[in-house]
Amino acid sequence: MKIFSRARIHYFILCVLMLPLGLLLVNPLPSSAQQSQLSARTVVNRTRAYMSHAGGVRLHFHCKALGLYNYSGDMLIKDNKSMLISERHTVWNNGQVAWALDKAKNTVTISNPKNEQNNRIADQLAIVDNCDLTIASAGNNWRITLKPRTRMGFFNRGEVLIDKKTYYPTQLRLRYLTIWITVNISNFSLQEYPDALFTFDRKKYPTAKIIDKR
Length: 214
Known about the structure:
Shape: globular
Largest sheet: 12 strands, mixed
Strand order of the largest sheet: 7-8-9-10-11-1-2-3-4-5-6-12
Helix content: 10-25%
Structural class: alpha+beta
Radius of gyration: 18 Å
Number of helices: 4
Strand content: 35-45%
């Protein structure tokens, strides 16, 4: 099923985690008494501030759908650059070129990220800006619900869980038609990554077959 291709899962994780809702207005974190009055956009904007950390962020994800699809790994994000590391694949994206290593096949596929659906970060802006956001308490997390105001393809609902203390994302749930895709997030941390990390180093994979699809 095309909607559950690894490329699209990478797209969902990368785009939704970025949640580009505009610049965060810097002010002190609210006290417990004030938290009940936080707006959904205020909470999400605080999370976006961490996701936009200048040095980059790292997180572990576990994606599942229908109880049949399971995909897990680590994602590194810095500005418009990203790196996905899983048991079988490693994907580098320096914002200009993307390299996808298939460890089982020993192949590296090169593509233009600007033309790849899984890297159209700007497209997610339309999704978020076209959604009404609501907030509710869910244990140690805030649950942010996204409901599109108008038809947006197969996407019809989203939920983001955000830790009340750290404002780090802990779970994403996206519904396409009647199917939910769930992404559990753990080990979120702020980093100081060099830009070179997001570029494929041919010297480390001298025997890999290169497939250039640019």
